[in-house]
Every structure is written in structure tokens, then in C-alpha cells.
Amino acid sequence: MAARILIVDDELDLLDILGYNLEKNGYSVETVSSGEAALLALEKNEHYDLVLLDVMMRGMDGFRTAEQMRRKGYQLPIIFLTALDTEADLLKGFSLGADDYISKPFSVKEVIARVKAVLARVEKSTDKMTFAHITLDPTSKKVLVGNELVKLTKTEYLLLLTLMQNQGRVFSRQELLDKVWREDAFIEARTIDVHIARLRKKLLSAGSLIINRSGYGYCIEE
Fold first, then answer.
1. How far is CA 53 from the centre of its chain?
2. CATH of residue 79
3. C-alpha closest to that of 38 among 53, 20, 49, 26
4. The domain boundary residue, chosen from 125, 157, 185
5. Is the pLDDT score of 34 beyond 80?
6. pTM listed for this prediction
7. The domain that contains 191 carries what CATH number?
8. Within this chain, do residues 98 and 133 fall inside the same structural domain, yes or no?
9. What values do phi and psi take at 8, rounded to 5?
10. Which has more confidence, 17 or 105?
11. pLDDT at residue 185 above 60?
12. What is the spatial distance between Cα 74 and Cα 77, in angstroms, rounded to a whole number?
């Protein structure tokens, strides 16, 4: 099945050009001309594999749109399209969960190449992960301990995913906070301890694989 791409830009000519060329390269494309319309499209339970999102739009700009997407739980990859190319703009984009950032003016060939690269990374990241007797499936979001299905909250799942993607690496509480909660200013770093404790309990015997390195943070290791 062809990857489905949502293009969001208030320049209608650019929408037509990008849409035509991406479809010509085998992608299924939907286009909308505002951030508000993009959120509505996602709320209709439409499945998209990637969003091309312009930053400088009338009404809700691209940064605000991306922020709302992440707050609503949409984890699909985002590529920003923008004439803003200062370091501060780049950092803001990536802090909102951007997977790539294409500065205007750009060539259509560049956009297609970046889309292919991001989709390839995402496809690779959907492979099942195993550690000891824990199995995590990023596609279905299911976690098994042995043959037993473990029901995790979204936060617990993201914590486990982060640790399993970086086996043996020690994460400080702040690093986990930044990765899982992103910019939620109402969460304290010590909240990590509570969620880790609940995660360990749900993982049963495998919970002991999540190690607290006193003074440093958490990791997963045998």
C-alpha cells in the first residue's frame, strides 16, 4: 500500500505542485490549506504516514499545528516546510517533534528525497523489539512478557519504548521527562519515579530489568 501523505500549506500553487509530484512518485496524497483543516483531517480517523507542514500560514501557523498534533497524541512524522531558517527556528521545530526541516526555496526532488528518507527511518523503527523476555511491537503498541500481554498506559509504553530503543544507556529523569512528556511544564522530574514503579509492577518478573542507577537515572539491562 502506498504511503499516505498529508500536505498542509496555504499556498495553493505549492500544494498542487507537491501533490502532483508526490503522487507521480507513488504516494497517496491529501492536501489542506490550513492548520485547522489539518487537525480536522486527523480527527476524522484518517490514517496518514507523514505530514508536510508549512510554518508560515495564516491563522494557526505550522508550529502551533504541530504542537496541537502532539498534544492530541498523533505521533506520525512531521517535515516542516519554511522560509524561516535561523537556528532558533530550527530548534523550535525539532523541539515540537519535527522529523525534518526543509528551507524554502526548495526543489521538488529535495522534498521527495527527504520524504523517502523519513519514511524509511519510520519503517525501520516499527520492527518488533525484544529484550530478555520482553517483546514490544511499535506497530500494534502491544507489550508481551513471555507470552502474556501486558496492558500499559501511553506514558508507561513510551517510557519502556525509550529504554528498549537504547538498551544499556542510562537516562536521567530530566532526559526521560523531555522525551516522554516533551514540553509539559506541569510535570516534575520526580514524577518519573512513580511511573517507573508502576511500569516495573506491570512487567511482573521482567520489571527487575529496569535498573535505577543511583544519582544518574534509569536504564534497562540484564
1. 14
2. 3.40.50.2300
3. 53
4. 125
5. yes
6. 0.59
7. 1.10.10.10
8. no
9. -125, 110
10. 17
11. no
12. 9
Residue closest to 222 by CA, chosen among 136, 212, 211: 211
**For the packed helices 108-125 and 12-24, what is the interaxial angle rounded to 10 degrees?**
60
Q: Return the residue matching grid coordinates 500544494.
A: 15
Count of structural domains, the chain: 2
Give the pLDDT confidence score for residue 145 in this predicted structure.
92
Q: Region 74-90: what's the mean pLDDT?
A: 79
Cα distance between residue 33 and residue 15, in whole Å: 8
Terminal-to-terminal C-alpha distance of the chain: 39
Q: Domain residues for 85?
A: 4-125
Q: What would the pLDDT profile of 135-173 be if each residue is shown by its tens digit?
A: 988 777 889 998 889 998 888 988 998 898 888 889 888
Domain boundary among 93, 125, 157: 125
**Among 11-20, 36-45, 172-181, 194-203, whose mean pLDDT is lowest?**
172-181
Residue 26 sits at φ, ψ, to 5 deg, of: 95, 5
- What confidence score (pLDDT) does residue 52 get? 96
